[in-house]
Automatic annotation (TrEMBL):
Domain of life: Bacteria
Native source organism of the sequence: Parafannyhessea umbonata
Residue ranges constituting the HTH gntR-type domain according to the UniProt record: 6-74
Keyword Protease: no
Cited InterPro entries: Aminotransferase_I/II_large, HTH_trans_reg/aminotransferase, PyrdxlP-dep_Trfase, PyrdxlP-dep_Trfase_major, Tscrpt_reg_HTH_GntR, WH-like_DNA-bd_sf, WH_DNA-bd_sf
Coiled coil (UniProt feature): none
PANTHER family: HTH-TYPE TRANSCRIPTIONAL REGULATORY PROTEIN GABR
Family from the record: In the C-terminal section; belongs to the class-I pyridoxal-phosphate-dependent aminotransferase family.
Keywords attached to this entry: Aminotransferase, DNA-binding, Pyridoxal phosphate, Transcription, Transcription regulation, Transferase
GO molecular function annotation: DNA binding; DNA-binding transcription factor activity; pyridoxal phosphate binding; transaminase activity
Cell membrane is among the record's keywords: no
Organism ancestry: Bacteria, Bacillati, Actinomycetota, Coriobacteriia, Coriobacteriales
Protein's UniProt name: GntR family transcriptional regulator / MocR family aminotransferase
Amino acid sequence: MKEPNGCLYVQLYERIKRDIVSGSFPYGSRLPSKRTMAEEANLSVITVKHAYELLCDEGYLEARERSGYYVAFRQEDGFAAYAEEGSLGRDRLGGESPATGKGVAFSAPPFPFSVLAKTMRRVMTEYGEGILERSPNKGRIELRSEIQRYLARNRGICVDIEQIVIGSGVEHLYGLIVELFGRGSVFALEYPSYEKIEDTYRIAGARVELLPMGADGIASEALAKTSADVLHVSPYRSFPSGITASASKKHEYLRWAGQGRRFVVEDDFESEFSLFRKTKETIFALSGDDNVVYLNTFSQTISPSLRVGYMVLPRKLVQRYDSRLGFYSCTVPTFEQLLLAELIGRGDFERHVNRVRRGKRREAQ
């Protein structure tokens, strides 16, 4: 059961998840008890408990008191079930109603200034006048390499360095995405959503459709009817509604994209600060069709003044990006890129994220 670079409970989590998605454990079925599963897999009950809790966090299982764990995921959730979803109504959404456009943004504690200052001095000492050099168009190899390793060990995203593009914040990357897909493309957005997403797309010349949110993501009826070419979603705690996409909804987004030459843009803002034991699985990692663009930024995890974001392209779009947009210069100074590379590579970035997550868990208890 154990692999060299994996925890036992994560290995079991992945195995059960595959069985659920494939239908080996159908919707509504009861999983073996923790003790039975432990005996069958030759694992401890605690290990099985952790795996089951992760599956509940992701929306694959539902824990019922004094009854056990039941499968909450079903492949047919989505287009065929939109009438049932519609009956939930907006009044059952978490937090403020989407119609009000209100929500509460999470404000992360500041990154330790002493660590930033120490790292800045180290970068200037080690690189000297190299910090004045022009950056390669996609970004410094040092930063892209560290992001590549970080995504592989924390987000289940395994990509080549050439798939990673550095830019000065996600608004800049939104504009590149419009250029990548073409100004005649139609972008479907969550409604409500972060207003700068719609503003940036419209200013860049794209057409936009706004799709109302349901209880666990975009309402299935609206998704089924959209004529969009690209779906832009924030599956982790969409702002301002605070809605997190369920496992079933993420698979629904991928089925929608798989019905044509469509793509999903996954805006993974704030997901590092999830309260769950394991950061939420990404749509990019779930996709088997190479049709998801992944976006993230360091504005929350490091500082709002550090305007650095990154985009991970699906392999099939790398050549298109290079031919259409490869001439664009990187908009992030070399010094800031090397600073971030040091923070990630030496573990300071992840230590800060873990401190914040532990603090949030204590507050939630």
